[in-house]
Amino acid sequence: MGNDTIEIFLSRTTLRQIEVIVTLHRCGSFTIAAAELGMSVANVSRMSKRFENNLGVKIFAGDKRRSVILTEAHTIIDCLAPLLEEIKCAKIGLREVLG
């Protein structure tokens, strides 16, 4: 993946899309991930597709009941999961500072 592709991916991808992908990876199910995120299964599916389109790489195989992360995608999600945790910690810190 070239630098231009990475920059395009980063400019088009939302924090919520990353949260959806990481949660799908952890849960292994669109239904369970949707419940955990407080979203509909359709929205989780739509956001995961947008993420894949932004990246230009397929992440999951399967259906709405069960998703399997593709082998190539593990590295991508392993890079994004810690970033998501850091952002969550930053949000908590900002809430404390800003009241």
Question: How do the helices and strands line up, and which of them pair or pack?
Answer:
Elements (H helix, E strand, L loop, with lengths): L2 H10 L2 H13 L2 H8 L3 H15 L4 E3 L4 E3 L3 H26 L1
Antiparallel strand pairs: 1-2
Helix pairs in contact: 2-3, 2-4, 2-5, 3-4
Structural account:
Strand 1 and strand 2 form a beta hairpin. The chain has a two-stranded antiparallel ribbon with strand order 1-2. The protein has one domain: Arc Repressor Mutant, subunit A (Orthogonal Bundle). It is globular and about 45 Å long. The mean pLDDT is 87. The termini are far apart. Helix 2 crosses helix 4. The protein contains 5 helices and 2 strands; from the N terminus they run ααααββα. It is mainly alpha-helical and 99 residues long.
Uncertain residue segments: none
Indicate the CATH class: Mainly Alpha
Q: Please state the average pLDDT score.
A: 87
Query: How large is the count of helical segments?
Result: 5
CATH topology: the name is: Arc Repressor Mutant, subunit A
Summarize the main sheet: 2 strands, antiparallel
Strand-pairing-aware structural class: mainly alpha
- Give the amount of beta strand, in percent: 5-15%
Helix share bin: over 70%
How far do the termini sit from each other? 41 Å
- Assigned CATH architecture: Orthogonal Bundle
The number of domains: 1
Radius of gyration: 14 Å
- The coarse overall form would be globular
Number of beta-strand segments? 2
